[in-house]
Amino acid sequence: MHFKEEQFKTFARSSANYDNCSNPSVDLNYPSFIALYSTDGNFTLSEQKFRRTVTNVGLGAATYKAKIKAPKNSKVSVSPQTLVFKNKNEKQSYTLAIRYKGPNMLK
After folding, report:
1. Which among 24, 26, 14, 89 has a CA at the least distance from the CA of 52?
2. Displacement of CA 52 from its chain's centroid (Å)
3. Contact (CB, 8 A) for 80 and 20
4. Half-sphere exposure of residue 13: CA atoms within 13 angstroms, side-chain side
5. What pLDDT does 85 receive?
6. Are strands 45-55 and 74-79 parallel, antiparallel or unpaired?
7. Strands (DSSP E) found in 1-107
8. pLDDT tens sequence across 55-106
9. Do 66 and 100 contact (CB within 8 A), yes or no?
């Protein structure tokens, strides 16, 4: 998905120029992940891992389960797949890994 600069600023709450990605950040503090891969076709397999810590801001106990839809030519995994919170303000961490098969692996 491609956002125009003004659209990006509405959810990033920043006036920084993020539309050209010449110096991208893979650690935006939003429930999303940015995995950047070479487009020159000279790679075979690339993997990026992300670790996030989340806080239960609900009133009490809550359970969240990962629902994954991997992009084409990718494998996505989350560990643990389920987070079970017992209390408000409780913190837990999870790891997400994205493996992308480049053009040389698709033959």
Report:
1. 26
2. 9
3. no
4. 3
5. 95
6. unpaired
7. 45-55, 62-65, 74-79, 82-85, 91-101
8. 888 888 999 999 888 888 889 999 999 999 999 999 999 999 988 876 554 4
9. no
